[in-house]
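Team,

Forwarding the record for the chain on the shared tracking sheet. I've put the sequence and predicted structure together so nobody has to dig through attachments.
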Amino acid sequence: MRCEEAQELITALVDKQLPGSERASIEGHLKDCSRCQLIYSQELELKREVRKAGAGLGAPAELREKILHDPRVFAQKPTRSIGPARDARLYLRPALALALLILLVLPVLYMMRPAGRPISLTAFETHEKIVSGELPIIRAGSPEEIKEMLYHSVDDKFAPMTYDLSMMNLKAVGGTVREFGGRKVLVTVYEGEGISVTCYTFLGTERDAPPGAEIFFAAEKTTNFYTYSRAGINAVFHREGKLICILVSKLPLPELLTLARSNAQPTPPAQPPA
């Protein structure tokens, strides 16, 4: 099976709508194709997030009452006998009301939802999901394979930052791709003895740094490093050209900052406008 054929069937596989022969064929393909496996894991996560969001939605009481008492949806009780066909149509009106309720309410509630948090803060949640096993990653045999897999997953637009964390006995074991606020984020996971570091790479600017972060300027790198923490998890944010890197871990903040500074490339000076 080719990748193009597999990718057309991934959504049906996630929805458990494939017959046995096709399911066996695509599952066999996924075992040997890390790129399609990555797409499959993203589809699974998207379905979980949609289900979670839908479970938390509810219609405001005032809007619900207005729809349920709209005569265009629920006709007045007939005063004379009606034929079977019209009687059947009346029974369909509650279903129509429910459909209208969903169509009207969901967009309103979606627009009322608070704006998404910046990537720099959402990175904490993703790191916790990876560590707990709630968010699966695609494991690969070498850092080069991980880099190539992630690079191709964003149509070769940018590559993940590859760090040498051997000084902490950490090595890259896998990765995944996430989408936050419409932006693709490449996630590389490093593991060691009881230690895990998650590296996020995405296109951005220093305006993506979290508010209130402490700033350290490294003169030898001509780079600002932003450090911040939440619930015992630490993070270091810095920019390299058009790319942003965030390291997240339970490592002590000074050690995490040292890792970031030792691996960061010097930031080139800003070019004057043409």
